[in-house]
C-alpha cells in the first residue's frame, strides 16, 4: 500500500485520518467538495482535489492516474434531522455518490476500501449491539448508509476487493495538537456543550427526560476521534494483509447518558449550566451501546482516549481556539 484516497478528507474525521497517514509516510490524495468540510483542517502535504463524489469520470481519472490502491470513503451528508427534510439530496449524495465511487474502482489498482457507516443502521436497541444484531435503519440518514453498505458488499465481492464497513458510534473530541476538531454543529452533544460552557449564562436543552433509561435521558456510546482514526489505520493494514472483508462496530462498549455528560462538562464551566428539559424528538434513538468484542479481537486494539474527562477537555480546548 502506498497511495491512499480519502473522500470527505476536509471533514472532522477525514482530516484526522489524513494527518495520521501522512505521519506514517503514506501518500494521501484528498477529495472534498467543501460543502461542510474546511480546507484549513487539511494537512498541506495531502494532494487535494475539490470534487464531488457524484462526478464519476473525475473520480475514475484520479484513481487511475495516481495508482490508488486503497480508499477510505467518508464523504457524506450526516445531519440526521436535515435528512428527514431533504431525502432526495441525502440519497443522491450518500447512496448515488457511493455507487459512483465504487463503480470508479473497476479496472483499477484499488485493493482495499473502507466505508464510514453508522450504528444507526441497527435502529433502536435497549442493549448492546453486535455486528450480527438485526438491521433496522431508523430514519433517512441511517437508510442511506445501509443502502451504501449493500452496494459495497455486492460490488466488491464480485470484484474481489477487500472492504471494511466501520459502523461508528458517537465520535467526539479533538486532536491532542488542538489543530483539528468538530466543525459542524449538526446537533452534536459534545460540540453544543463545549460552546455552552464558554458562555456567561449557559443554557442547554435536553430533549426528553422520561425515557426507559436509568436517569430518563438518552444513552450513547461515545468514542474519541483519535481512537476512531487509529481504528481506520489498523483496519486498513489488517484487511490488506489478510485479503479479508469485515464489518466492525466502532465504540467503547460503555453507555453514557446525556445527564452524565452534562455533569462532566459542568466541571469545566465558570458559570452554572441551566438545563432546560424539552419534549423528546421524533426519531431519537433511546439507547445505543456497542459490543466491542469483534473490534478488539480482529484488530488486537485497545482504546487510548476512553476517558470521559479526556473527551470533554479536548472538545472544550478545541472550541476555545475560536477558529471554527
Structure description:
The protein is of the alpha/beta class and 324 residues long. The chain has two domains: 3-171 and 222-250, NAD(P)-binding Rossmann-like Domain (Rossmann fold, 3-Layer(aba) Sandwich); 174-220 and 253-290 and 305-320, UDP-galactose 4-epimerase, domain 1 (Alpha-Beta Complex), CATH 3.90.25.10. 37% of the residues lie in helices and 20% in strands. The strands form four sheets. A seven-stranded parallel sheet has the order 3-2-1-4-5-7-12, sandwiched between helices. The chain has a four-stranded mixed sheet with strand order 6-15-10-13. Strand 1, helix 1 (12-23) and strand 2 (27-32) form a beta-alpha-beta unit. Helix 1 crosses helix 7 (225-242), helix 4 packs parallel to helix 5 and helix 6 crosses helix 10 (308-320). The model has no long low-confidence stretch (mean pLDDT 93).
The major pleated sheet works out as: 7 strands, parallel
Report the β-strand fraction as a percent range: 15-25%
CATH class of the largest domain: Alpha Beta
> What's the overall average pLDDT, rounded?
93
Distance between the termini: 34 Å
Helix content: 25-40%
Number of domains: 2
Number of strand elements = 15
Radius of gyration: 19 Å
Strand order of the largest sheet: 3-2-1-4-5-7-12
How many separate helices?
10
> CATH superfamily assignment of the largest domain?
NAD(P)-binding Rossmann-like Domain
Looking at the structure, the CATH topology of the largest domain is Rossmann fold
Low-confidence stretches: none
Order of helices and strands: EHEEHEHHEEHEEHEEEHEEHEEHH
Q: Strand pairing plus helix content: what structural class?
A: alpha/beta
| Shape annotation | globular
Proper CATH architecture of the largest domain: 3-Layer(aba) Sandwich
Amino acid at each position: 500500500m502506498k497511495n491512499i484516497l480519502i473522500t470527505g478528507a476536509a471533514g472532522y474525521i477525514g482530516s484526522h485520518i489524513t494527518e495520521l497517514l501522512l505521519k506514517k509516510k503514506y501518500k494521501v490524495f484528498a477529495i472534498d467538495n467543501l460543502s461542510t468540510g474546511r480546507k484549513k483542517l487539511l494537512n498541506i502535504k495531502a494532494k487535494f482535489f475539490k470534487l464531488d463524489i457524484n462526478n464519476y469520470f473525475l473520480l475514475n481519472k484520479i484513481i487511475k492516474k495516481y495508482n490508488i490502491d486503497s480508499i477510505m470513503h467518508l464523504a457524506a451528508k450526516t445531519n440526521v434531522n436535515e435528512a428527514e427534510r431533504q431525502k432526495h439530496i441525502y440519497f443522491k449524495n450518500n447512496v448515488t455518490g457511493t455507487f459512483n465511487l465504487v463503480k470508479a474502482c473497476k479496472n483499477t489498482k484499488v485493493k482495499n476500501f473502507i466505508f464510514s457507516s453508522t450504528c444507526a443502521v441497527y435502529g433502536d436497541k435497549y442493549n448492546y449491539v453486535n455486528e450480527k444484531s438485526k438491521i433496522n435503519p431508523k430514519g433517512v440518514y441511517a437508510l442511506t448508509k445501509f443502502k451504501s453498505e449493500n452496494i459495497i458488499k455486492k460490488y466488491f465481492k464480485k470484484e474481489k476487493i477487500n472492504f471494511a464497513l466501520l459502523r461508528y458510534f458517537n465520535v467526539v473530541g479533538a486532536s491532542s495538537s488542538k489543530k483539528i476538531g468538530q466543525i459542524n454543529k449538526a446537533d452534536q452533544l459534545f460540540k453544543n456543550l463545549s460552546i455552552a460552557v464558554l458562555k456567561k449564562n449557559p443554557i442547554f436543552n435536553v430533549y426528553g427526560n422520561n425515557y426507559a433509561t436509568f436517569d430518563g435521558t438518552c444513552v450513547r456510546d461515545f468514542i474519541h476521534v483519535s481512537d476512531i482514526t487509529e481504528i481506520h489505520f489498523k483496519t486498513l493494514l489488517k484487511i490488506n494483509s489478510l485479503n479479508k472483508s469485515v464489518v466492525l462496530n466502532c465504540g467503547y462498549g460503555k453507555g453514557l447518558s446525556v445527564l452524565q455528560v452534562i455533569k462532566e462538562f459542568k466541571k469545566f464551566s465558570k458559570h452554572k449550566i441551566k438545563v432546560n428539559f424539552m419534549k423528546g424528538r421524533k426519531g431519537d434513538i433511546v439507547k445505543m451501546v456497542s459490543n466491542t468484542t469483534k473490534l478488539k479481537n480482529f484488530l488486537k486494539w485497545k482504546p487510548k482516549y476512553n476517558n470521559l474527562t479526556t473527551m470533554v477537555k479536548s472538545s472544550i480546548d478545541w472550541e476555545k481556539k475560536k477558529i471554527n
